[in-house]
Amino acid sequence: MSTKTVSATSAAPKSGRRKLTLPWILLIVAAGIVLISLVRTVSGAEDLTSIGQISGALELAIPIGLAGLGGLWAERAGVVNIGLEGMMILGTWFGAWAGYQWGPWTGVLVGILGGALGGLLHAIITVTFNVNHIVSGVAVNILALGFTQYLSNFTFAEAEGGSSKQSPRIDEIKEITLPGADWLAEIQEKHWFLVSDLAGIVGGLVTELSLLTIVALLLIPGTWWVLWRTAFGLRLRSCGENPIAAESLGVNVYKYKYIAVIVSGGLAGLGGAFLAIVSTGIYQEGQTGGRGYIGLAAMIFGNWMPGGMALGAGLFGFTDSLKLRGGAENVLAMVLLIAILLALFAGWQLYKKKYLQAGISAVCAAVLFLGYVLIDEIPSQFVDAAPYVTTLLVLALSAQRLRMPKADGMPYQKGQGK
Q: N or C: which end of the chain has fewer CB atoms below 10 A?
């Protein structure tokens, strides 16, 4: 008996993947900054790591990150939440509706409530009535879009400064700039290798920060602590891994699934309220622009973990900000960066003797290198599509290491564990 136990224990580490520890994460981040600095120097795209670029990327990443965080809560409890887009739409409308009447912070709270109502509807359909999660999520998206369009016709259209497709302007939430930002801006403008890039990145993270941005950033470690360091989080995650076993141990699976999906909707609603109140200052029809789906992609890229999800959201925010601030020049620099990353990935696959993946990556890298050398001006259509193409490439490259919760999306009926 003891021999079997020892052999099983010794064999376990060989079958599992090496855990990505904090030192390794910091090393990867440092290597990424060095690579970006090198690309900036070679391409001449000096705005690549400017304070404005990083600040804009953070603002664009927050709604995506909040949607991804919402998806993480739901899927860790075993419920696929395709309805994040619809819950974000509800958050934008309710946040703007309350914001222009009673102030931005009231708008934030009501936006969270609007998204939570969408989450409650999704939970009733999927958990109680056991409807397919994808079908329910699509239905929530369609209902949210139609519902907000209907409400806008007799609320915003009759308000001063509004229309059927747009709300009146909402008061701003206070922004703060931390001490030392001016000094960092001076260093960034020197365009020194690596030093100026570090100054630009740090400066972008401490300049003109909305208080709601700070709240959103704190929700990432807060989610990690709740789900991975508390008994409540352990029970919730058990519902997404093996709900039958969880129920047999006395966990009320329905209750935890409901809580997770409602919180998921509330976080997506907060992302929608951020779009309406902080990013633009008004509600506009269609302003979510598919960010709920992108948030879901960021969550998958992050392997259903808060830190990885934040990196995915930051990646999309960064590429989107490149498009808005520098246009073709910055996107061309991003093409060079992706080509280098693909070449490095090809070398890694070759080292692991995965020749097919190495060959495909090498060919893609060569095509991008050739495009960077030969193309002087990128078509505007490609500039607009660059964030989405980057996201798809990263998802494709990281797909081999993904592991979703085992019971994610699987049907479950109360009493199966008894």
A: N
